[in-house]
Design brief:
The complex is a heterodimer of chains A (301) and B (324). Chain A has ten helices and no strands. With 301 residues, chain A is an all-alpha fold. Chain A is elongated. The model of chain A has no long low-confidence stretch (mean pLDDT 82). Chain B is mostly helical and 324 residues long. Helices cover 77% and strands 2% of the residues of chain B. A two-stranded antiparallel ribbon of chain B has the order 1-2. The longest helix of chain B has 39 residues. The termini of chain B are close together. Classes of the chains: A mainly alpha (301), B mainly alpha (324). Chains A and B meet through helix 1, helix 4, helix 8 and helix 10 of A and helix 1, helix 6, helix 7, helix 10 and helix 11 of B. Chain A: Keywords: Cell membrane, Membrane, Transmembrane, Transmembrane helix, Transport. Chain A: Belongs to the binding-protein-dependent transport system permease family. Chain A: Pfam families: BPD_transp_1 (PF00528), OppC_N (PF12911).
């Protein structure tokens, strides 16, 4: 019986592999396109001289009235939708990765300090995390983003948007990392090598960053991967609601917001293609993250 | 012991509400100027001074906060800058729309998600259970607003079956404006409720499956099987019953998510609830409305957490004894 079930497990793992491999391949392609976007876009949608209003509102190339130069059609300005998508993908990924970097930095520091020193430091930090956990992260990010924006003069809102969004997303998710790191650090700090390092006269910060931190990073890595999907999704939501990336530097969410206005006039492509791109991106990140979690950290399952 | 546990949890809930109220109150002093917000930029300085006097803006900070709390406890959050009406009235007339949307979505997401999670755990070896799990990854990857937009594209723009915005006709039942009793109200509810529920169904199914698998691995399940009990009895009488506890937590988390994402869904479908109110207040820096919304939400979430913790402690003595 155990042998048979192990065999079945193995078979299932194999049968799931194509999905994981496909997701990983798609993810790699999307990341590659995003990284190279400014150099490989077929048209420059922000070069006003090259925009031609005669080319505006064109449907995708395979539809009647489509133009072979514009595979996914054009928007109301005559900008190539495919180019906008590639640059939007770049912005979405950039914001997502930066936001997670902020979450990880805050959470790592908070978790390390509270797990290593314990006592009142831990009480305060973890209580703050508890209180923040009372609120859904999406709502918190929306609130921080919306309020920070209204504190700035109108002229600076657009240029500061990316920093506001990254910080709003980063702050809204640090407690997840803090909890994870704290738990890992508590386990790690009770081990003999930490005691040995203390006896050898190493400083607290030396032990914390040189010994404890590297040994607590595995679960952080997994959560960070999963969290990129959260950050991208939340950023898209904020942008759709008008509190995220501005139209001058659109992410996929901003493109969907713009396209939504044209949905009822029959120009479905300006909203459907950004939507599908976002979904494909999120699904492939999540499938990859799920696989990574099973691989690196079966405990989290 | 139980009493102590209860008091600690209650204290924590009050702490949350206190801190949020402090932050919410602080917003009023950080953002914008209430006098300009009410009178506009070209008011005379005499009118401005009168209003400052009337709003008592020159009192010390602590006095103003104390007054804010005293008023808030009585449901008085001041006047909305934008609507020029009491914030309490604005909120009261929008609660039914959001409540009906969120509760419908809650019923859908728990009603579909829990059974899916249970069967996916019991028959975890079957091909359709792994298909279900792959499907649920797609489900949690679908942003709520994108689901809403794609549904509008399919069912409103292309097929013309369902309305794309608003709540339809409502009738008043004892002061509660409900859309659940009219045909147009019900058809208007379908797409918002479904788009709110889609990713939640997937989330609930995944959480319930994980909890159920945890239970199925325990010794008492193995002993139950060893006693020769039938699968059905083992699964539904022993395993499912012990999974119900985590399901309480999941449901609590769920209400929080639904309220948060109701904001998004309301914006997509122009649903006249608290979410659209909050977003326009955020756009226009209508501080009294933002403040009231924050405090209301904090009370709601603190209450949900408290109730979940208490139900958990009631059902599982280990919780209150170890952490009490």
């Amino acid at each position: 019986m155990p042998a048979a079930s192990a065999l079945r497990d193995h078979a299932r793992a194999m049968s799931l592999k194509p999905a994981v491999m496909a997701a990983t391949a798609i993810l790699l392609i999307l990341v590659g396109v995003a990284a190279l976007a400014p150099w490989i876009v077929p048209h420059d949608p922000y070069d006003l001289a090259s925009l031609d209003l005669f080319d505006s509102h064109l449907p995708p190339a395979w539809m009647p009235g489509g133009d072979a130069r514009y595979l996914f059609g054009t928007d109301s300005q005559g900008a190539d939708l495919l180019s906008l998508l590639m640059l939007g993908l770049r912005t979405s990924l950039k914001v997502g990765v930066l936001a997670v970097a902020v979450s990880v930095s805050i959470g790592l520091l908070a978790g390390l300090v509270s797990g290593y020193f314990r006592g009142w430091t831990e009480t305060i930090i973890m209580r703050a995390a508890d209180i923040q956990f009372t609120f859904p992260a999406m709502l918190l990010a929306l609130l921080i983003g919306g309020l920070a924006r209204s504190m700035l003069p109108v002229g600076q809102q657009e240029s500061a948007a990316i920093y506001i969004v990254v910080l709003a997303l980063g702050i809204s998710h640090w407690p997840h990392f803090a909890r994870l790191v704290r738990a890992a650090v508590i386990t790690e700090a009770s081990k003999n090598y930490v005691m040995a390092a203390r006896l050898a006269g190493r400083s607290h910060s030396g032990i914390l960053f040189r010994h404890v931190m590297p040994n607590s990073l595995n679960p952080v890595f997994v959560l960070a991967t999963m969290d990129i999907a959260f950050a991208i999704m939340t950023e898209a939501t904020l942008s759709f609601l008008g509190f995220g990336m501005p139209t001058s530097q659109p992410s996929l969410g901003t493109l969907i917001k713009i396209g939504y206005g044209y949905l009822f006039s029959g120009e479905w492509w300006v909203v459907v293609f950004p939507s599908l791109t976002l979904i494909v991106l999120l699904v492939s990140v999540n499938v990859f993250g799920d696989w990574l979690r099973d691989r690196l950290d079966p405990k989290l399952r | 012991m139980t009493m102590l546990y209860f008091l600690r949890r209650l204290g924590q809930a009050f702490l949350v509400v206190f801190i949020v109220s402090l932050i919410a109150f602080q917003l009023g002093t950080l953002i914008g100027d209430p006098v300009t917000a009410v009178l506009g930029l070209d008011a005379t300085s005499a009118a401005r001074a009168d209003l400052r006097e009337a709003l008592r803006l020159d009192d010390p900070y602590v006095v103003r906060y104390a007054r804010f709390v005293a008023d808030a406890v009585q449901g008085d959050f001041g006047m909305s800058y934008r609507a020029q009406r009491p914030v309490a009235d604005v909120i009261a007339e929008r609660i039914p729309a959001t409540a009906e949307l969120a509760i419908t979505a809650l019923i859908v997401s728990l009603g579909i998600g829990i059974p899916l999670g249970v069967v996916a755990a019991i028959w975890r070896e079957s091909w359709w259970a792994s298909l279900l799990m792959t499907g649920s990854i797609v489900g949690v990857s679908l942003p709520t607003f994108v689901v809403g937009i794609l549904m509008i594209f399919a069912f409103s723009v292309t097929l013309g079956w369902l309305p794309s915005y608003g709540r339809g006709a409502t009738v008043s039942v004892g002061g509660w404006e409900t859309g659940l009793l009219t045909a147009s109200g019900l058809t208007a509810l379908i797409m918002p409720a479904v788009s709110l529920a889609v990713s939640q169904v997937a989330l609930v199914a995944r959480l319930v499956r994980a909890e159920m698998l945890e239970v199925l691995r325990m010794d008492f399940i193995r002993f139950a099987r060893a006693r020769g009990l039938r699968d059905r009895v083992v699964h539904f009488r022993h395993a499912l019953r012990n999974t119900l506890l985590p399901i309480i937590t999941v449901s609590g988390i769920q209400i929080g998510y639904l309220v948060a994402f109701a904001v998004v869904v309301e914006q997509v479908f122009q649903w006249p609830g608290l979410g659209t109110m909050f977003l326009s207040a955020l756009t226009e820096s209508d501080i009294p409305v933002i403040t009231a919304f924050l405090v209301l939400i904090a009370c709601l979430f603190a209450t949900i957490n408290l109730v979940v913790d208490l139900l958990y402690a009631l059902a599982d003595p280990r919780v209150r004894l170890s952490r009490g």
